[in-house]
Amino acid sequence: MSKEDVGITVSKNEDFSEWYTQVVLKAKLADYAPVKGLIVLRPDGHSIWESLKNTFDKKFAKNGIRNGFLPVLIPESLLGKEQKHFAGFNPEVFWVTHSGTNEIGDRLALRPTSETLAYTLYSKWIQSWRDLPLKINFWNTALRAEIKATKPFLRTSEFLWQEGHTVHITQEEAEQEVMKILDIYKNTVEEELAIPVTTGKKSEKEKFVGAVYTTTMESIMPDGKALQMGTSHFLGQNFSKPFEVKFADKDNVEHFAWQTSWGVSWRLIGAMIMAHGDDQGLVLPPKVAPTQVVIVPIYRNDEGRDKVLPKVKEIQESLEAKDIRVQVDDRQGLSPGYKFNDWEMKGVPIRIEIGPKDIEKQSIVVAKRYNREKTNLQFSEIEKVVEVLDEIQKNMLEKAREQSKENTKYVSDYTEFKLKIEEGGFFNAPWCGKLECEEKIKEETGADIRVIPFGSEDTNSKCMYCGEQSKSIPIFARGY
Q1: Residues 146 and 233 in one domain
Q2: Whether residue 224 is found in the same domain as residue 320
Q3: What is the spatial distance between Cα 139 and Cα 68, in angstroms, rounded to a whole number?
Q4: Which of 82, 199, 318, 427 is the most exposed place for a label (fewest CB within 10 A)?
């Protein structure tokens, strides 16, 4: 028996970090690559990413966004055209300095993000107002030197993501695009991954380098740490000016364009694992599950096999006709109990058990992974599996919302905040808006402003750190 076959050996509540790593590896979502900081995506992990990709692509297309492709190498001279951006990423950049044994001269950066490359090209492609808006999304890998505290899906030196880059005639249109994308992100994460998010803006300190402002969606994980789930940035003209992304208006007067950029990465998969998994392993929301239903035939001999398998095939075809992703586990030499544990580890939403006695009763046993509840369905009711999957998806989101509420607190006293932050969680706390207070809180507690929720403006309270009048009630937390 291989190490992969051994179940989770630690409790989620007792050693969250080790539990998470074991689930990633033993549920066969990913494995470590030979190079430190890199991981290999296995078929189930890739399937989940592809499911999200397909959903995003459909929504992007409805918003007039098309997909393109960008190379991974960026000349150092291009990065230097936007000094703030370059300075922000320089410590994390991998550099290519040789071609074979020959030095190449101008170093090439392995793409940490694509603004500089994309906007150099946009300046060539855009001539007049007729070329706008330009909306392109790129499904890429990005590379940033994360060598020390690596964790699969959450912090790796190379990661899968999408990055969108749009160009607009007016500031208003660009800012509307920022919010449209944030809404797409929020709805997809909640509807597909069953993870509740809080949306708002980043502080000036935490915004994306080069952006006018950054909007974000944040979630609180079961261990009390915050996770940034995605960002949508209003870039203003901060990139269009150095990269000369200009257009001629209807009167042939030249203007600098207004721009946005936005992205999510495969850390969404990490969030899903943390939010829903349990001590038995992975728990998958039905919408993204590579296998939604596994059928386990139970029999002791050839007679039982011949009696059960035809019905299994019939049920499989019936479910597949409803576009349900089904697998039949007819592996030989393995007990039903072993198979049950194996599929529970992989998080398949529904397990159907069927043996000779079930054939006689004209029914099947339906086991739900997320709460381990078992029910019986008559053969004539097999189509109700669709309803059960929908119910599981809905209930998983509701359960996650309850967990998020339990992990969210309001604190106005800094002494109390310093004590409670050790327990983890989201903390709504009044803030004066000053960088000095934000930096001191981070320095003294390790917590930063994760998000300033929309509608959280507040002038009736006192900043929890300095006691001056507050401007908003952001969410503070320690994060990944």
Answers
A1: yes
A2: no
A3: 8
A4: 318
Q: Per mean pLDDT, which range of 2-11, 35-44, 258-267, 348-357 is the poorest? A: 2-11
| CA–CA gap between residue 403 and residue 396 (Å, rounded) | 11
Rounded Cα gap, residues 379 and 61, in angstroms = 40
Please state whether the predicted TM-score (pTM) of the whole model is above 0.70.
Answer: yes
Range of the domain at 359: 293-388
283 lies in some domain? no
One-letter amino acid identity for 47? S
Strands 408-410 and 363-368: unpaired
Assigned domain for 431 exists: yes
Say what the pLDDT of residue 4 is.
55
Opening angle at CA 368, ends 402 and 283, nearest 5: 60
Instruction: List, for residues 145-167, the tens digit of each pLDDT value.
Output: 876 778 999 999 999 999 999 99
Tokens 């946005």 sit at which residue? Answer: 260
Q: What is the pLDDT of residue 87?
A: 62
- Cβ atoms 461, 430 nearer than 8 A: yes
Shortest CA distance to 152 belongs to which of 17, 7, 21, 346? Answer: 21
Residue 300 pLDDT > 90, yes or no?
Answer: no
CATH number at residue 469: 3.30.110.30
